[in-house]
Design a protein that fits this description.
By secondary structure, the chain is of the alpha/beta class. The protein is built from 15 helices and 17 strands. Bound molecules: zinc ion.
Length: 447
């Protein structure tokens, strides 16, 4: 079955006016002028219109489905307090059902804002009765959302064992193997959350199994100083020294990376997830995106978790990336809309080393596509398609989302799960989770 997806602009590497994308099964078969493709394929049903914008699916390079049910609480904390007061108390209380429903709740919001690939790190204590994280993969498959899944492992807390952390890794790895849409990475909560013995084992596992790594890196100053006191190096310096970067590594945040760190990251092709909204909410700082990109580092954009963003709206994250860069430099030229768009698409794909499959509208790539609705007032008049996507469009304009050649979102709504039912199901779970973790005291209403 072939489909023709039409747009007034098709954001192939260069924008095509009144273009179309021909999709067959899971792949892009052709990209070009709508008139020519429609004439050559009269049998193909046409999606989109002459007023819509067709973009590559957005690549969300960092998030935590473990936070899907704890949005909008405790976000007047800075990162250290936030981990201590909010994330750590949650860790023992996850269940397979919370993992499944939390992933659906966050994943629906991602699809509604045009995300087709989500790079996730699930943060919880390993399941005692059964592993927790495979239920992330089950939810992503049910949503038809492409996943790069990891478990944010770390043994530096009372009662933790390296063996149990690795069992959770392996259960997730197995789940991803049997999924059509998810692939596995080795998650490292943060360097400081692992003992030296565990980190050595992590490096060995990643390299021997051929998996990529997903890790928080130098999000705040305190992480840099604490690591320096312990190892005599920065986190980036220590990871390079220990050989971690022999595995393809995606480093989330990198707000506090100095010149030497940046050089090392460029040398080892470490990808970066820039999370402008979460970094703003937790007052962590602004990552040196321009400096990293100048050195050739691949930088993508992430929404980060629902407990630190707190929204899962990817279009907000793209816009904020451009705004923060401009405010930081007090230069309107600091980040053009086109650069933000590229980071959200091919930049993120490169950071995850998936650029041969996703990240742009090109023949042979996976058909991961977004159709932005041009029939309403928001995109009624598009003068520059990059600015239209980055500064003008909201998730309301996301009309269709294609993942792997299938419609995951049509007429603005997720196709394969009942959203009202998911919302209903999430409420008692969220109430119970917050109550068991003792988080109610973080609400301003408790003061
Ligand atoms: Zn994170």
């Amino acid at each position: 079955m072939t489909h023709l997806i039409r747009g007034g602009w098709v954001m192939s590497p260069e924008p095509i006016a009144d273009g179309a994308v021909l999709v067959e099964r899971d792949r892009i078969l052709a990209v070009g002028s709508y008139r020519e493709l429609a004439a050559a394929h009269p049998e193909a049903p046409v999606h989109g219109s002459a007023h819509d914008i067709v973009t590559p699916g957005f690549v969300n390079t960092h998030g935590h489905f473990s936070e899907g049910l704890v949005t909008g609480i405790g976000s007047d904390l800075t990162l250290w307090e936030w981990i201590h007061d909010l994330i750590n108390p949650l860790r023992p209380h996850y269940t397979p059902e919370i993992a499944y429903v939390g992933t659906l709740v966050a994943g629906i919001q991602m699809l509604r804002s045009g995300v087709t690939t989500a790079n996730d790190m699930f943060v919880c204590d390993p399941g005692t009765a059964a592993p927790i994280t495979p239920h992330v993969v089950r939810a992503l498959d049910d949503l038809r959302l492409r996943g790069v899944v990891s478990f944010g492992a770390g043994d530096q807390r009372p009662g933790a064992s390296i063996a149990a952390e690795f069992e959770e890794h392996q259960a997730l790895e197995e789940a991803a193997k049997s999924s059509r849409l998810s692939t596995f990475r080795v998650g490292v909560g943060a360097l400081g959350l692992q003992s030296d013995a565990m980190f050595t084992e992590t490096v060995r596992y990643a390299i021997e199994s051929g998996h990529g790594v997903h890790m928080h890196v130098q999000e705040i100053r305190e992480e840099v100083t604490a690591t320096h006191q312990r190892t005599g190096r920065t986190v980036v310096g220590h990871c390079a020294h220990e050989g971690l970067f022999a595995a393809p590594t995606l480093a989330a945040h990198c707000v506090w990376v100095d010149r030497a760190d940046r050089q090392l990251m460029a040398e080892h092709r470490v990808g970066v997830a820039h999370n402008p909204v979460a970094n703003g909410i937790l007052a962590s700082g602004i990552a040196p995106v321009a400096e990293l990109r100048q050195l050739g580092v691949d930088v993508g954009i992430g929404v980060d978790g629902a407990a630190s963003n707190d929204s899962q709206d990817y279009l907000q994250a793209i816009k904020t990336a451009a705004l923060l860069a401009r405010v930081r430099d007090l230069q309107a030229t600091a980040m053009h809309a086109r650069e933000a768009f590229e980071m959200a698409t091919i930049g993120g794909a490169r950071a995850l080393r998936m650029e041969s499959e996703i990240g742009s509208v090109e023949v042979g790539k996976k058909a991961d596509l977004v159709v932005l609705d041009g029939s309403g007032p928001t995109l009624a008049n598009v003068h520059d398609p990059y600015q239209a996507v980055v500064f003008v469009a909201g998730s309301r304009e996301v009309k269709e989302v294609w993942v792997d050649g299938e419609l995951s979102l049509a007429d603005g709504e997720v196709v394969s799960v009942d959203v009202a039912e998911v919302v209903q199901r999430s409420r008692p779970l969220a109430t119970e989770l917050v109550s068991r973790a003792g988080l109610r005291r973080l609400s301003v209403l408790a003061r």
